Every structure is written in C-alpha cells, then in structure tokens.
Amino acid sequence: MSADGSQPVNGEKVHAFVGQVVNDMAAAMSGVMTNLGHKLGFYRAMAGAGPISPKDLAQRTNTHERYVREWLNNQAAGGYVTYHPQSRTYELPAEHAAVLADDGGAVFLAPGFDLISSLWLDEDKIAQALRTGEGIGWHEHHHRLFFGTEAFFRPGYKANLTETWIPALEGVEAKLRAGARVADVGCGHGASTIVMAEAYPNSTFVGSDYHDKSIEVARRRAAEASVSDRVAFEVATAKTFSGDGYDLICFMDCFHDLGDPLGAAKHARRVLADDGTVLMVEPFAGDRVEDNINPVGRMYYAASTGICTPNSLSQEVGLGLGAQAGEARLRAILAEAGFGRVRRAAETPFNLVIEARP
C-alpha cells in the first residue's frame, strides 16, 4: 500500500485494461459500420462473390468507391472480411455471410446493431432515469428500437419457434395443427405471431401490445404475409388482452419487461383453457450474477439497463425483473400465479424456453 493509503497500481494491468477499452471503442465505432454494411447491401453483395475490389463493390451497391475502400479496411481490421494484399481485394467468408447477409438464416445478427443504436439515441433519457429512478416506456424510445427489435428477433423465431420450441411443449403442436386458439402477448410488430400463423394455418392468433404504433405495423405485416384471415392484433396490456379459452399463450422476450409480471401471469392463468399451456421465451440467464459474467450476459445487462428495466419501472407495480432475471425467479412468479407444472422445455445460447401448465 502506498504512503497515502491507496492501493498500488499495477502498470501491466493498466496497459492490459487500456487495450481492452480500446478494443471496445473500436467495436462500438465499428458497430456503426456494420449497420451501414447491412443497410447499404455491402454484405449481401459480397456474399458468395469471392474476392472483390472496392470499385466493384461500389458499383454493385451504387455507392462511392472512396468511402467503400475505407469501410472495407475497417471490416478487414475487425476480422469481418478477409483482405488479400496481392490482389488488393476483400472477401466475405461464407461463415461470416451467414451472420451478416443471410436474412433468412438462424444466426442472422446484423439488424441487432440498429437496436443498439437506439441506446445511443436515447442516452439522455437513460441518464435521467439512472439519476431519478424514473421509468422509460417502450413507446418513449427512438423508433429504431422497434424496427431493430423486430428484425433482430425474427430470424431466431423463424428458425426455432415452430421447428424446436413448440414441438418441445407437451401436446401443443398437435393442437396447433388441428386448430387451436393462441394469444401472443407483447407481440410488438407481430414477428412471432406471423411465424406461428404461417406454420399452423388451422389455428387462430391474437397478438396484443400496449404500443399502438407497433400494432399498426403488426397489422401491415400480417397483410403482407397473407395471414390476416387468421390473425388479429389489438392494443392491450398483458393484464387486459381480450378473449379466453386459449390453448396457448406466448410471452416472447417480453415477460421481464412488464411492470407487473405476476399480474400478467395471473391474467394468463384465468384466460387459459383448462389444458392450456404458457410458452415463455426469455433471455438466457443463470440465477446468480456470477453465472452471467460473459459476453451474452454483458449484452443483456446493457439492454436491461437502458430498455427492459426502465420499461418495467414506467408501469404500475414496476417490479423491474430485468433481462437477466434467471429461471428460478421466473418459476417462482409462475408458481405464485397458479401454474403447477413449470419446466425448461428448450434453450439456445440466447434463450430460455419455459413451459407452464395449470
């Protein structure tokens, strides 16, 4: 310990941490470049094209070559594309194209950067919330959050919801194929609702969300997908959505955002058919903080600080579960709401999939 009582500083550790912060700064700035690459079609143009020059990429995407060259160098420095010095060309590996260019694939992550941009755009609101403890309603965020969330989550729903998650539930898929009644709570732009409606044409679906602007988009999306005949959307909270006798009630990545998740679970229990099922998809999390000290936990804690917890605190009760609530706490709420059988039905590196039955 030094003479003034402070802990001595290890110079090597300081330099190592400087390197970590510089890496994070580079990643944060490059996130904007990734978002631009997605929106301007750079990744799609490079996918399967082999080595390509800045001039060729600019021509394919109707952009300016000089800027494209700088963008490509950023991507090469970050390991997103491969630079070939002899030919001065750049290549998007097929494995990277699956993540950055294939919007129908299970691991398409590029839209997530638009979601992230909303945190920067709402930084002042988040700072005010941190100072005062006030909430921030979902509707109060920048519109990039709504569309970024839809685009980011849709690939995972398309890859997993009807292929893995619903088949993992006890007897639910057979009901849906025969013709069931489904409520999709907190549906946002309706991505999960529409994925289910396309897979199970004999069933009917009601998506609900308190955000009226999201419901307007959801109705458009249903019309575009030609499923409006079996899908309806309503403006309602998780404690007021209409109807009863539901065979399946879904909470897709929204339960932890609710101000009163217990009240929502009790309402779901009341309007569920006697042999019905609740499907809850939540961010993957362990029950202890130390279980979540990893890149996925870091990402989810950031979203929880700026989006999820503020949304909960803006509503009545304001329980503030947070995006890393963990399975044990979710189970406890469901049990208190009257669900006697609760189990983890499936999981991915990003998702906990919980089945609850009366």
Notes on the protein architecture:
With 358 residues, this protein is α/β, with parallel strands linked by helices. It has two domains: 11-100, Winged helix-like DNA-binding domain superfamily/Winged helix DNA-binding domain (Arc Repressor Mutant, subunit A, Orthogonal Bundle); 112-357, Rossmann fold (3-Layer(aba) Sandwich), CATH 3.40.50. The protein is 49% helix and 15% strand. It has 14 helices and nine strands. It has helices at residues 11-39, 42-46, 54-61, 65-77, 94-100, 112-121, 123-132, 143-165, 172-178, 191-199, 212-224, 261-271, 295-313, 327-336, and strands at residues 82-84, 89-91, 181-185, 204-209, 231-235, 246-252, 272-283, 341-347, 351-357. The strands form two sheets. Strands 5-4-3-6-7-9-8 form a seven-stranded mixed sheet, with helices on both faces. A two-stranded antiparallel sheet has the order 1-2. Strand 4, helix 11 (212-224) and strand 5 form a beta-alpha-beta unit. Helix 8 runs parallel beside helix 10. The longest helix has 29 residues, at 11-39. The chain is globular, with a radius of gyration of 23 Å.
